[in-house]
Amino acid sequence: MNFNNTLKIVRLGRLQFILGGFLFFCAGTLLALLLNAQFNLEKFIMGYAALFAAHLSVSYSNDYFDFEVDQFQKPTRFSGGSGVLVTNPELREFSKNFALFLMGLSIFLAIITTILFQLPVSFFILILSGNLLGWYYSAPPLKLSYNGLSELATALTGFIVPGIGYVVLMGKLDINFIIFAIPLIFYELLFIINVEIPDMEADSFGGKKTAIVTYGRHFGFIIGAIAALIATLSFFFMPLITNIPPINWGMLFIFSLVPLGFGILSARKKSIKKKSALKLANYNILSLSVFIIMVNTYFIYLI
């Protein structure tokens, strides 16, 4: 394999999404540490390695199964696929096989990690669920993104990804994490809505039934703003339903005003043209990144 093909294969991986997954994973591990879990570097590395392989596989499987849809669009920073297979169809079979290899590696690492560190079966179930959601997001027979379930599938990762980080150090899923995950689920909904917004026309031509294809871009921005609002309200009411002494939930409430502000601004703009909507969607996704970085930084400060 020559250097050019190697670069194309790396581009297929769309590593910008991997960073987001790592930040959500870290949020789970940091929450566990704030609840007096002991940090174990080997657990952290093995747990994330299983997640990393699963997360990376999604890019390769999605580009393979979305090949026809991607013919109708050009890739952007966060949407439209990588574009690699459209111009290099000879790499399609490799992309599918590599995705399957990564899934197998992820499940193998999850089994080894579970046995080695005597983790609960919930760790393995979370890894397996992430792999299945990632594969069937675009793969038959489920084809979740073609059957109106892309938003639900992605929202669930707001529980799965930080849940993996939490369980690997805490050794269990408990009510503290479940409550903490509520706003993260809505942030993942905000994320996928803004990924889908620029792809509306191509997704429609390709037969996808996303919320944006069905109801339009302005509706998508409204749903994104509502998701951000629910997340913000979750942090506002968090002190009433859980008690994690080091955390000042007011700080997370303040951090959440960043994605909420951009979400409301986007909804008010009423942008339905692709060019202007793309700009707003990118801002929304970046605001979500800023939020999770601020949360992780705050948690590290508390530790």
From TrEMBL:
InterPro entries referenced in this protein's UniProt entry, alphabetically: UbiA_prenyltransferase (IPR000537), UbiA_sf (IPR044878), UBIAD1 (IPR026046)
Subcellular location field: Cell membrane
Sequence intervals crossing the membrane: 15-35, 98-117, 151-169, 175-197, 218-241, 247-268, 280-301
This protein's UniProt keywords: Membrane, Menaquinone biosynthesis, Transferase, Transmembrane, Transmembrane helix
Highest taxon listed in the record's lineage: Archaea
Metabolic or biological pathway: Quinol/quinone metabolism; menaquinone biosynthesis
GO biological process per UniProt: menaquinone biosynthetic process; vitamin K biosynthetic process
Coiled coil: none
Protein name: UbiA prenyltransferase
Organism (species): Methanobacterium formicicum (strain DSM 3637 / PP1)
